[in-house]
Automatic annotation (TrEMBL):
GO terms for biological process: proteolysis. The active site is at D49 (charge relay system), H86 (charge relay system), S250 (charge relay system). Keywords: Hydrolase, Protease, Serine protease. Gene3D superfamilies: Peptidase S8/S53 domain. Belongs to the peptidase S8 family. PROSITE patterns: SUBTILASE (PS51892), SUBTILASE_ASP (PS00136), SUBTILASE_HIS (PS00137), SUBTILASE_SER (PS00138). It comes from Metabacillus litoralis. GO terms for molecular function: serine-type endopeptidase activity. Residues 40-301 form the Peptidase S8/S53 domain. Pfam families: Peptidase_S8. It comes from the Bacteria. This is Serine protease.
Amino acid sequence: MSKVGLIPYTIQTVLKDTKVIPPGVELINAPSAWKQGYSGEGMVIAVLDTGCDSTHSELRNQIIDGYNFTTDDNGDPKNFEDYNGHGTHVCGTICAEENEEGVIGVAPKAKVLVLKVLAGQGYGETKWVTEGVRYATKWIGPDGERVRVISMSLGGSEDSSELHKAIQEAIDENILVVCAAGNEGDGKNETDEFAYPGAYPEVVQVGSVNLQKEISEFSNTNKVIDLVAPGEEILSTYLNNEFAVLSGTSMATPHVSAAAVLIIEQAEKEFERPLTEAEIYAQLIKKTDSLEYSRRFQGNGILNLASGSVTPSENHPLTSTK
């Protein structure tokens, strides 16, 4: 039975209270999208992780639904509470509510479908993740909502054909699948490090930079990295209605997942039709700036929501390939 788990990450600080736009959210220029009227309204992101603290003041209004695939709480499918903190942190980066306290997420009006595929200790069976991906693909919300992005800050060393197939099925339904690259990096350009599902060519594989836009030493490098986002000293929501500063490619991934729904929201308004997964990917990559690193480190560059535009380019009307 193959296992998957949290990509190792660092807890740097836990805070009882704060009132700030997190530096990572600022670094990708999410406020520029908000000023244009795009905050993720009507968008749903499936977060496959350790669950979510459903009572957190920043998140309790942001959860549209959830399901527990793990053995926590005797396998009660309706109890997707987070006993680890990782999933709550990821959800906060995605859509912490805009209010007069705490933090704000990249897409503060989006909703999360919380799919608990890792137990409290941070590990799970690959089949739980596979089931979670399939659940997200088929899920329909109370008002007919569908998942637009699947976000996975998890990984393992084993390639699973069933998980790979489930991801391909999600992509066939025009869902963008965003995954952490992994934290086994050695800082060297010539060596490859792979974690699955991030290493599958169909997914958007996210590496990490620090708040000075330097590649994180721990960030995996390989030929299929798509882009990088802030993954060091990331402030977000945490257990017990608190906040924490964490580091890892796990923290970079939700910045991209949430940015993707802002891009979908804007592009579909402008084009007046739904976008395919390939078109969503192309629009996301337009919102990157190249850094002074090899593509094995940075892929197409750092996510920047103020960069580029959602208008079609002459040669490639909307699409590009991963």
